[in-house]
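Summary for the lay section of the report: proteins are chains of building blocks that fold into shapes. Here we show the chain for XRN2-binding (XTBD) domain-containing protein and then a coded description of the shape we predicted for it.
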Amino acid sequence: MSLLGLSHELPAFLSARRIFVVRKRALLVDMAEVEIEEFIDQNRHLATLVDTYRGISESEKHWKARREFLFRNINDFEDPHIDQLLALSMVWANNVFLGCRYSPDLLEKMKEMAEGIVVEDAPVFKTRDEIMKKKKQ
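The coded shape description reads as follows.
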């Protein structure tokens, strides 16, 4: 059983993933050029599985962005590493929406993985040092 409790869905997920990989290679699809909704329409089973990863407390805005992060990167993670992708998607969302800070190496990896994702009205966070510097001026 996987950490997510989805062991019964993994064979179907892997099948959908293989179809996606074949389509991606055959059509040379670049997720940065394809509308995410178009991708979802073409990969309904994969989209349904990804939707099970939504957190109960995730707003529609947060989920939409994290879901796109998952779709853009799912091809790079094999079955036993899906949990790693889910963790990275949460780290990315926490950085973007909550201002959580992480190591420079991890932030660089997330930046590469999230390339092309546009988050409208993303909050802007200031560090304590930036706030203190402004108060002194």
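Put simply, here is one thing we learned. The helical segments are 10-27, 36-42, 44-51, 60-73, 82-98, 104-113, 128-136.
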